[in-house]
Design goal:
Blueprint (H helix, E strand, L loop, with lengths): L2 H9 L14 E7 L19 H7 L3 E7 L5 H10 L3 H4 L6 E3 L2 E5 L8 H7 L3 E6 L16 E3 L5 H14 L6 E7 L10 H4 L5 H8 L3 H9 L7 H31 L6 E6 L5 E2 L5 E2 L6 H4 E2 L1 E4 L6 E8 L3 H9 L21 E7 L2 E8 L2 E7 L17 E9 L2 E9 L8 E10 L2 E4 L2 E13 L15 E10 L2 E13 L6 E11 L2 E4 L2 E4 L2 H10 L4 H9 L7 E6 L19 H10 L8 E3 L2 H9 L5
Parallel strand pairs: 1-7, 1-8, 2-13, 5-6, 5-7, 21-23
Antiparallel strand pairs: 2-11, 2-12, 3-4, 4-28, 8-12, 9-10, 14-15, 15-16, 16-27, 17-18, 17-24, 19-20, 19-22, 19-24, 20-21, 22-23, 24-25, 25-26
Helix pairs in contact: 2-10, 6-10
């Protein structure tokens, strides 16, 4: 195998692009969010009329046929191609993750050097028009941009804003213009003319209606199949969204021609990641490292150069050094290589993905692909598998004598609620009320609600054994109730639940939640650790020293099996992954301070595109 030579090439300094001798004056970089390469005409897609403008433009451009993204979703991918570094190095993994401080997001470190910063330092005017809440101002991607519009709108609005910039810019200075369009991101919010180009109106409503997230979650949780006509309809809607992007690209290219800008402007079109349609049991993106999620387009037109196709493998890590080479600007040290430099050849493509309970990394070389998966084990998490203090938990309980024993622990979605909630059968002893032995005190102005059957706070007529939920302030003495909900039925087996903030672990195997001490058996702690969010500190620790043993290996031959449907029983070549990854980690830029706490408004913007739920 060529892997040792290729790894050396990937880490070595590269020559400058041949294009530097006649460098273009300006650069436009366009990202079509969520567009997989095989749904575009230049990559063999044959849906009639889908990308005619792209097809004509690409015929005179350089088409990189085999390009791999560094991640399967926007948050880690865009910083990677903007800086030529991997998530292991820039540290941007999380878009919205629960922490002691609330819901947090990783941000690109100030120490990172972006494409925009390099060109800004070379005297360029730099502007960006963005539509993706993951890239909003404050996430670090704006570094180096003189203007950064993160409320870009749809492809048509972004195209208009781009034209405004081009007409109003300083004509004496070169420019970088970055456009990021979200129209091919589910729920594919494009005009009906394009949404129904290949899909029926009924299908459009189903995939774009108010229940689109529920549909996605049902499929991705294995609760419903996604095959046949339904799958075909979703793909048809996706292609319609791409046709809208193509339409607006055609208008932008025509404008550039009219203004004479194509004569001295390089134009690059990429995507940050792809999309899956049930090929491996899931739909959407952000869930793994299969080719449908990683194989992305990269098309680059350079004034005065004829069209050609680059067949050898490349990575989006190579975007920054290649574009700087085209512009004749010296590139900083990155993990990328200039793919247009003399002697440029295939390089290994490394990608990674971090999700709750799992970290994945993949390496593709000579059409052979390795996917390694790692899961946390007891004691491996940075805090010993304990939640962050103050994190709100939802606990299912059972009684064992006078003790309360946790049977399942989850992180609660109501992260901003400071109250304790206790649900279970009501215990009545004279005037004393309790649930599972925890005393309930009715606070001043307490509220009775639910299936009251005519009962009121003044005349509650308590019924022992009925299912109730007490809401209020919890401490070691019990619960001071602000509200008490009646369910109008007897409590059933297993209906004992507690929600509240984690207050620490006063002794081995005991957690304090909502002011109450609970016994947490080792198996429950292990299950909780498996389900909670992995953090980048843990991942960096795994790979900074001796090789950490993987939990799963999948190997594919992409030449014979491009759909990654039949794994090989062969681990040859994986022994070189640990030293490669260790080298990446040793060159990391991020620190624990490179994160921010999200506001409720930011969370709403993320939920609108399927994140932050």
């Amino acid at each position: 195998m060529l892997l040792p030579l290729l790894l050396t090439a990937a880490l070595a300094p590269q020559a400058t692009s041949e294009a530097a001798s006649a460098a273009p004056r300006n650069l436009i970089l366009i990202c079509w969010d969520t567009v997989r390469a095989d749904h575009l005409g230049p990559y063999g897609h044959d849906r009639e009329g889908c990308t005619p403008h792209l097809d004509r433009w690409a015929a005179g451009a350089t088409v990189f046929e085999d390009v791999t993204a560094c991640a399967c979703w926007t948050k880690p991918s865009v910083p990677s191609y903007m800086t030529g570094t991997l998530p292991l190095q820039h540290g941007v993994y999380r878009g919205s993750s629960k922490d002691a401080a609330g819901v947090v997001s990783d941000v690109l470190p100030e120490a990172s050097v972006t494409l925009a910063e390099v060109l800004q330092g070379a005297g360029y005017q730099t502007a960006a028009v963005i539509r993706n809440a993951q890239l909003r101002r404050g996430q670090g991607i704006e570094q180096g941009f003189d203007s950064y519009d993160d409320q870009g709108g749809d492809a048509r609005e972004i195209r208009w804003k781009a034209m405004d910039f081009l007409l109003e810019r300083d004509p004496e200075r070169p420019f970088l213009l970055y456009l990021h369009m979200l129209d091919a991101h589910w729920p594919y919010p494009v005009p009906d003319e394009f949404a129904t180009r290949y899909a029926s109106a009924e299908a459009v409503e189903r995939f774009r209606g108010k229940d689109w997230k529920a549909l996605r979650d049902e499929v991705n949780h294995g609760e419903r199949p996604f095959v046949g006509v339904e799958r075909d309809e979703m793909i048809a809607l996706y292609d319609g969204a791409i046709s809208y992007l193509d339409h607006e690209l055609g208008r932008l290219l025509a404008f550039l021609e009219r203004e004479g800008l194509m004569e001295d402007t390089a134009v690059a079109l990429i995507s940050d990641h792809g999309e899956e349609f049930g090929e491996h049991g899931r739909i959407g993106h952000g869930h793994g490292l299969y080719q449908g999620l990683l194989h992305v387009p990269w098309i680059l037109s350079i004034p005065g150069q004829a069209g050609r196709r680059v067949k050898h493998a490349a990575s989006l890590l190579d975007l920054m050094p290649t574009l700087l080479g085209v512009m004749g600007v010296e590139a900083p040290d990155t993990e990328g290589i200039d793919q247009l430099a003399p002697g440029a050849a295939a390089r290994p493509a490394f990608a990674e993905h971090l999700e709750p309970g799992r970290y994945e990394r993949s390496l593709t070389v000579a059409r052979r692909k390795f996917i390694e998966r790692f899961r946390p084990r007891p004691g491996e998490l940075a805090d010993g598998a304990l939640p962050a203090r103050g994190l709100r938990l939802e606990v299912e309980l059972e009684r064992s004598g006078r003790a309360l024993v946790a049977t399942k622990i989850d992180e609660d979605d109501e992260e901003d609620d400071p109250r304790t909630e206790l649900k279970g059968p009501l215990e009545v002893r004279g005037r004393r009320l309790s649930i599972a032995g925890i005393p309930l005190e009715l606070g001043e102005g307490w509220e009775l609600y639910g299936e009251t059957g005519g009962r009121t706070a003044d005349a509650p007529a308590w019924v022992a054994g009925e299912l109730v939920k007490a809401v209020g302030r919890g401490d070691a003495d019990g619960l001071l109730c602000q509200k008490l909900k009646l369910y109008g039925k007897a409590a059933g087996e297993g209906e004992l639940e507690l929600r509240g903030a984690f207050g620490g672990s006063p002794s081995e195997g005991v957690w304090t939640v909502g002011g109450q001490d609970l016994r947490v058996p080792p198996s429950v702690r292990e299950d909780y650790a498996d389900d909670r969010d992995l953090d980048r500190e843990t991942v960096a620790r795994w790979f900074s020293g001796a090789a950490r043993e993987r939990d799963e290996l999948i190997v594919f031959d992409l030449e014979r099996d491009p759909g990654e449907l039949s794994a090989l029983d062969d681990a040859q070549g994986t022994e070189l992954l640990p030293p490669l990854v260790r080298a990446f980690v040793q060159r990391r830029i991020w620190t624990s301070a490179d994160s921010t706490t999200l506001s409720s408004e930011e969370l709403e913007h993320l939920r609108a595109i399927g994140y932050g739920d």
